[in-house]
Amino acid sequence: MANFQDFRERWFKPYLLILHEKQSYKEAWQMTVTRWGVASTVVTLILLIGGITYAVIGWTPLKERVIPGYVSEDSRQSAILAEIKADSALLALNVQEQYLSALRTLLRGEIVPDDITTEALDSASLANSEGELEAWGITEEELALRERVEEEDQFSLQRAQSGSRSSKSIPFPPLQGEISSKYDPSIGHFGVDFVAPIGSIIHAVDDGVITLASYTSDGGYVVSIQHFGSRQSIYKHNQSLLVEVGDRIQAGDPIAILGGTGTHSTGPHSHFEWWVEGQPLDPVLWLPAYAPAAKAEGED
Predict the structure, then answer these.
(1) How far apart are CA 214 and CA 211, in angstroms?
(2) 256 pLDDT band (50/70/90 cuts)?
(3) Which of 109, 124, 135, 253 has the greatest count of CB atoms below 10 A from its CB?
(4) Count of CB atoms situated within 10 Å of the CB of 165
(5) Which domains does the chain carry?
């Protein structure tokens, strides 16, 4: 109790603070103060000055100049964006390297290992209900086309054996249809034309890698496949494409939908070319399912 009384007397004892003029010593101002009051005022001023200083530095661009090593939010976002772009570039470079490796293997006439492939996730396969399909933006027509492609692939003819890959023969027909225009290199027609109902599925004639899958003015939607043993197949005038450049496919895989696109097309058909070691060959001679004679009237 005595200690509290001493503390109270010591810190709360009043003092008279008087200011005098220097020359006349005349009293100019006075105020009663205590030690506790002076200490509280000093602490309050320190906290107030500290808070104002923190606010000025923390909420203004001044922090970038005052705080050592501080990184602005714009710089941080730019760094994150640059890291994302770098990661995407490395992924794309890895995919391209796999594609080029598979292409080099094909050009040497070797078999592409199973681990060299470009994987593509079909987002529509994740939708297992009508509501999810609508959320993914898939129409009923697209869904029906996917089902038809799967059915065609499931019930397609038996794929060619590996022994046929080194010869000029075509293990698998591109589609089931009639030949309407024969091979005639003298007029620049380096393939044959197949006539079939529009929307028919076009298949890969052998295992390989997609080297071209795009639209051209004369050929419309075109697919080109590099096969084993310096062989190449080309499919023109498609309505739409089912593959992308770099995809690794097998004989019989659906690659396009028959149509009539391109300036050199006068009607729905599929133009098919077969090249071996850089030279075009008459595909009919290497398709066992078709007679060597093709109808004279052409589509190109």
Answers:
(1) 10
(2) very high
(3) 253
(4) 21
(5) 2-58 (no CATH), 72-119+156-300 (2.70.70.10)
